[in-house]
C-alpha cells in the first residue's frame, strides 16, 4: 500500500479481525476503514453516501488503497460494520491515540454521554443507542467512546473505558452520575485527577459539603482555608455570574474517596434578556489542590463537550437523524463521525468551520490529502 503518509493511520487497524467468512471476503477490511473515514470527513452521513463519494473518486483512492474489487457497495459497508467487533476497534483507536502523543497534563478531559436518537427500532422493541464519549477539550479530540443500551448503564461503561485509555496527567470531569468511589479510584489509578459533580445520588456526601459551605457562608467565607472567585460573562441574551468556592476536604471524606483533596461549591446567577433571573447551586469533589480558579476552569470546560462535540454531531453530521441501527452499525459509524470531527477540528490547513471543511475536502481531494497529512504529522 503506497500511502505516502496520507493513510498511515491504517497501520493501527491492521490487527482488526475481519468478521466475514473467507468466501465473502472480496473487499479488504482495512480498505473499508479508510474509505469510510474519508467519506465521513468529506460529507457522507450514510453508507450509501460513503459509496457514492468513493465511487466518484475511485481512481484517486486506488493510488493509496489496494481495492482488489473496486469500491464496496453500501450493502457491503453495512453488512461488515454491523458485525465488526467494537471492542477490538476501540483498542485500535486507543493505539492510534497513544501514537499521537497528546499532552494531557493539567488538561480537561470530559466524560459525557449522548443518545443516538435515530438508532431506535420500534418494531424490534430496541431503544436508541447511548454513546459515552471521552473528549479532550484542548485538542478537540474524542479519545474514546463506548456504547450502552440505556443511559442508566453509563456507570460501568465509564469504568471500563478508564481501564482502556491512558489519561495520565489529565483532569477528568464528569457529571454527578459518575460521582462513584470506584470511578474515582480508577481515575487515580490511571495517574489522572478528577473533578466530579455531586448531586442527590450521593445524599450523604452532598449534605456534608452543603453543610460545610453553609457554615462558611455565615462567616462570609472569611476562613483562611476557603478560596472564592467570581466571574461575569455577558452575551446578547443573558448575563451569567459564577462564584466558585473551594476548601480542603475533611479527613472523614478523604478516607472514603481515593485521592480526594478538595470539596467545592458553585453558585450561578443568570439574568436573561427578558429580565428573568435564574439561580443554581451545585457541589463537587476533586483530587486537585484547593485552588479555586483552576477548578472553575475545569468545570467550565467540561460543558464545552455539548457545543464542540454533541451539537456539531447533530447539526453538521446529522447524527440524530441517522437510521443506521442494525447490529453494531450505529456504534461503528458513530466512531467514524467522531474521528472525522476530531480531525477536522484539529485541521489548520483549511480556514473554515467544520461544515465548510467537509464540503471543501469533498470537492478538492488535494485539500483532503492536506487534512489527513497535517493531522498525522501533528
Task: Please explain how this structure is put together.
This protein is an alpha+beta fold and 378 residues long. 42% of the residues lie in helices and 20% in strands. It has 14 helices and nine strands. A nine-stranded mixed sheet has the order 3-2-1-4-5-9-8-7-6, with helices on both faces. Strand 8 (262-272) and strand 9 (277-286) form a beta hairpin. The radius of gyration is 23 Å and the shape is elongated. The two termini are 22 Å apart.
Short description:
The protein has 378 residues and is an alpha+beta fold. It is built from 14 helices and 9 strands. Helix content is 42%, strand content 20%.
Helical content, roughly? 40-55%
Secondary structure: number of strands: 9
By secondary-structure content and strand pairing, the structural class works out as: alpha+beta
Question: For the terminal residues, how far apart are their CA atoms?
Answer: 22 Å
- The gyration radius over C-alpha positions equals 23 Å
Q: How many helical elements?
A: 14
Shape: elongated
For the largest beta-sheet, the strand count, sense and barrel status come to:
9 strands, mixed
Strand order of the largest sheet: 3-2-1-4-5-9-8-7-6
Mean pLDDT: 92
Order of helices and strands: HHHHHEEEHEHEHEEHEEHHHHH
Percent of residues in β-strands: 15-25%
Low-confidence stretches: none
